[in-house]
Write a structure and sequence with these properties.
By secondary structure, the chain is mostly helical. It has three helices and no strands.
């Protein structure tokens, strides 16, 4: 392939494709040599192990943050439930007071009607 590229008989597109193929083959050759010598695989294994250790540390940190956030959410739900119960009690008290007021007004109206009727007779 090197000879074809050097001869100048190839078009530009074909030359680029051939150069790319040569580059890939050279890279594969180096990788194969490194694997046979054992140098590349041990470095890769070490780097993968180091990356795995970093990810485990990140996982632990994220898990701790998740637990903290979940505890805050649970606490806020408790506060929300307490406030909802207080609101319901306040509403119930308000409804009872309105009922009493309505009953008092009805008694007052009845007394006024009785007074107005008995005062004119």
């Amino acid at each position: 392939m090197d000879a074809e590229i050097g001869s100048g008989k190839l078009r530009l597109v074909e030359e680029k494709r051939a150069l790319q193929e040569i580059s890939q083959l050279n890279q594969q050759k180096r990788t194969l040599q490194n694997l046979l010598n054992g140098t590349d695989s041990s470095n890769d294994l070490t780097s993968v192990q180091a990356r795995l250790d970093m990810l485990k540390a990140d996982q632990t940190l994220l898990s701790t943050q998740h637990d903290t956030i979940q505890a805050k959410i649970t606490e806020l739900k408790g506060v929300q439930n307490d406030r909802y119960a207080d609101r319901q009690n306040t509403k119930q008290t308000k409804d009872e007071i309105r009922k009493e007021m309505t009953e008092c007004r009805a008694r007052m109206d009845a007394m006024r009607a009785k007074y107005n009727v008995s005062a004119h007779t």
